[in-house]
Amino acid sequence: MPIRVPDQLPATDILRGESIFVMSETRASTQMIRPLRVLILNLMPKKIETETQFLRLLSNSPLQVDIELLRIDNRPSKNTPTEHLDNFYRQFEAVKERNFDGLIITGAPLGLVQFEDVFYWDHLKTIMSWAKEHVTSTLYVCWAAQAGLKLLYDLPKRTRKEKLSGVYSHETHNAYHPLLRGFDDCFLAPHSRYADFSPSYLEENTDLDILATSKEAGVYLAATQDKRNVFVTGHPEYESHTLHTEYVRDCGEGMDPQVPVNYYPDNNPSNEPHATWRSHGHLLFSNWLNYCVYQQTPYDLDQFSEKNFTTDE
């Protein structure tokens, strides 16, 4: 939330230069507040587990957020009860005429599948294109980040030879960028993907602000200059046992996976893993809600227009 200060206070310009949201008394006295509308397109098979993880991160904010859940198609689910989907999820046709403050597109277990072979690829492209004119800021997570880069920059799918799995150290860049507000210079975050996000490749082929990278995992966080598209290549929403569950699953399927890096104490899967990324996960989502959504979105969503947005920090 903003700091409210007297008009013309000398400290205002300094704080704004550090991406601290400062609101003058004049603006505060005329400010109208309403709940933010955030749509979550859940592409993961275990939808209840995934929606819980994202809702936990979105809840750590003083902003009031109204959540709606979106499914990509109406095929029966093997991992989520039909009753749950019917009661809590909407089809795109039910929301496409409306505007939203934020959209989150989750990851999907499609790391080794080519885009054109994804059953719902054309429908996903339709939703992503729709977001350009109906959503203030879209957050692409893991596989969705790769899909978003294909749509926005026509970047071909790049796949690692081995799955990236574990908890990796990252360095921040552009310390005063709003999305990095409050971040340590180095922080931990989990990854579980085949997708390759090379910093040099993104720098050469996009105009994205590269905000956090890892020597092992590549780009973790990037955003367009207007903050309307944010890419997170890891899984800040993961719970402490999520990587363990995936590791056990892959072992059971005879995939002979590598032990997730920097995850189990002493690198021993028999030891209880601990979440070491939770604080930065909450901070990232809080910053996204505040600086990319709340600070950018029009009060009247019916007045939504791409002209409302600038690249000014």
Automatic annotation (TrEMBL):
Alphabetically, the GO molecular function entries are: homoserine O-acetyltransferase activity; homoserine O-succinyltransferase activity
Q: Where is the active site?
A: 142 (acyl-thioester intermediate), 235 (proton acceptor), 237
- InterPro entries in UniProt: Class_I_gatase-like, HST_MetA, MetA_family
Tell me, what is an example of a GO biological process annotation in this record? L-methionine biosynthetic process from homoserine via O-succinyl-L-homoserine and cystathionine
Q: What class of enzyme is it?
A: transferase
Q: What is its EC number?
A: 2.3.1.46
From the UniProt record, give the pathway where this protein acts.
Answer: Amino-acid biosynthesis; L-methionine biosynthesis via de novo pathway; O-succinyl-L-homoserine from L-homoserine: step 1/1
Q: Which residues bind substrate?
A: 163, 192, 249
Q: Which Pfam families match?
A: HTS
Question: Which family, according to UniProt?
Answer: Belongs to the MetA family.
So what does this one do? Transfers a succinyl group from succinyl-CoA to L-homoserine, forming succinyl-L-homoserine.
HAMAP family (alphabetical): MetA_acyltransf
Q: What is this protein called?
A: Homoserine O-succinyltransferase
Name the species this protein comes from: Vibrio ezurae NBRC 102218
